[in-house]
Structure formats: structure tokens, C-alpha cells
Amino acid sequence: NAGVTQTPKFRVLKTGQSMTLLCAQDMNHEYMYWYRQDPGMGLRLIHYSVGEGTTAKGEVPDGYNVSRLKKQNFLLGLESAAPSQTSVYFCASSYSPPQGWGSFTEAFFGQGTRLTVV
Amino acid sequence: KQEVTQIPAALSVPEGENLVLNCSFTDSAIYNLQWFRQDPGKGLTSLLLIQSSQREQTSGRLNASLDKSSGRSTLYIAASQPGDSATYLCAVWYSGGGADGLTFGKGTHLIIQP
Q1: Which terminus has fewer CB within 10 Å in chain B: N or C?
Q2: How far is Cα A68 from Cα A46, in angstroms, rounded to an integer?
Q3: DSSP letter, residue B112
């Protein structure tokens, strides 16, 4: 009953360090998303993927890169972390595109990764 | 650009009351709308999904309605319980500006007093 799993759950980075956040889903979903959640800003879309081997930019993509080499995994990378990237990061997945059919468009979220950049 | 607004931002009521949370969106060209619950320090739990062609969805004590033409949705919680205390987020599936994904409101922080 795993659903969407994010690794790690917590991380502290120094400015300029790099890291990769891993998202794994076991629901055979085509669509995957990375969001960040900041106080007073709500959740904002960073990048998304509509299938294995594809990626696309969301609302706030600068400073992040992503890869979807396997259908079940979606990686979010920070090449040179900045204090402005301190946030809670959420991964989500859905079976079909939002304009698709019925409950298959429902999005499921992971538990989040709390990242602090000092 | 799609904008989602949730009113009120915070709400505190005694246990047992029925309550309504409001969500409005600026662009009615949505595919569907999803309500989530978020507990402190936790992820998002999906509560209800309403497709753009539907008017409402029900799950237990929760009922969500959608008026796409006016850009509004409400989440009705019946007979509230302390365990309902959480932040409730409204989000719309919207394709615009070259990005596909959910656009979120900032949430309603709900406290149910025992």
C-alpha cells in the first residue's frame, strides 16, 4: 500500500551543494509532478512529466532539473542549492491526464521532503 | 493565469457544527477540481474529485459542489469532529500557459473545538 514515496524526508544543505530528491510510485501512473510549498504562497508546480522519458517546466522551474528515466521514478535535482530553495517539496502522480476520464485523473501525493538550505 | 482563492483562510468552530468551505477560481476552463486535506507536517490526502461535467460529489460526511460557470466550489462538512481539524486545500486541473498540473488555493485552516 505504498502509493507515492519520497526520499529523503528531511535534509539540510549548505548553499552551493547539490542533491537529488527521489519520488517513486507503484500505481503505474503516467503523469508525475513536483511541487513546492511555501508559507503564504501555497503549492506551486516546479516540473512535471507526462510519461517515461518526458519532462516539462511548470510555474517555478528555475534552479531545478528533473529526469524520468523509468516510469515509476521522477527525480528532482538541485545543482547549486540556494536559501530561496528552502521549502517543503511534494511529488504527485496521476494515471491519466487531467482532461482524461473520471477517477483516473485523481492526483495522489507523497508525504513531502522538508529541505533547508543554510 | 488561473488563480484559486479560498475563503475563509482560517475557521474555528465547536464540535458538531455543519460548516462550508469556499473555493473560487478565475478561469472556468477547468478539467476537474480536487479537494485535499493536509495535516501539520504531513502530505496531502485526496478527499474528493469533481469532474467539470459534474455538479457534486459525496464521501461520508463530506459533500463538494462545483459551479463551473461561476467559478465556485464548496466543501460541506457535516457534524464536524475534532479529527476534522486540518488545512483543506482546493485545487483545479487547468491547462494554460504551457503547464499541465494542479493550481492550488492557499487553504482554509480548520480547527474543531472539542
Answers
A1: C
A2: 14
A3: E
CA distance B95 to chain A (A): 8
Rounded to a whole number of angstroms, the distance from the CA of B94 to the nearest CA of chain A is 8
- Hey, are the CB atoms on B49 and A105 less than 8 Å from each other? yes
Report the gap between the CA of B30 and the closest CA in chain A (Å). 9
Report how far apart, in Å, the C-alpha atoms of A83 and of each of B64, B77, B114 are: 38, 39, 40
Q: Which residues lie below 8 Å from residue A42, measured CB to CB, with a gap of 6+?
A: B89, B104, B105, B106, B107
CA dist., res. A102 & res. B77, Å (int): 23
Residues 29-88, chain B, touching A (beta carbon < 8 A):
31-32, 34, 36, 42-46, 49, 51
Q: What angle do CA A32, B51, A76 make, to 5 degrees?
A: 10
Which regions of chain B are under pLDDT 70?
Answer: 95-100
The grid coordinates of residue B18 equal 455543519
Residues in chain B closer than 8 A to A51 (CB atoms):
none
Q: Give the C-alpha separation, A93 to B23, whole Å.
A: 23
Q: What is the pLDDT of residues A67-102, one digit of tens each?
A: 999 999 999 999 999 999 999 999 999 887 666 655
Q: 3-state class of A54 per DSSP?
A: coil
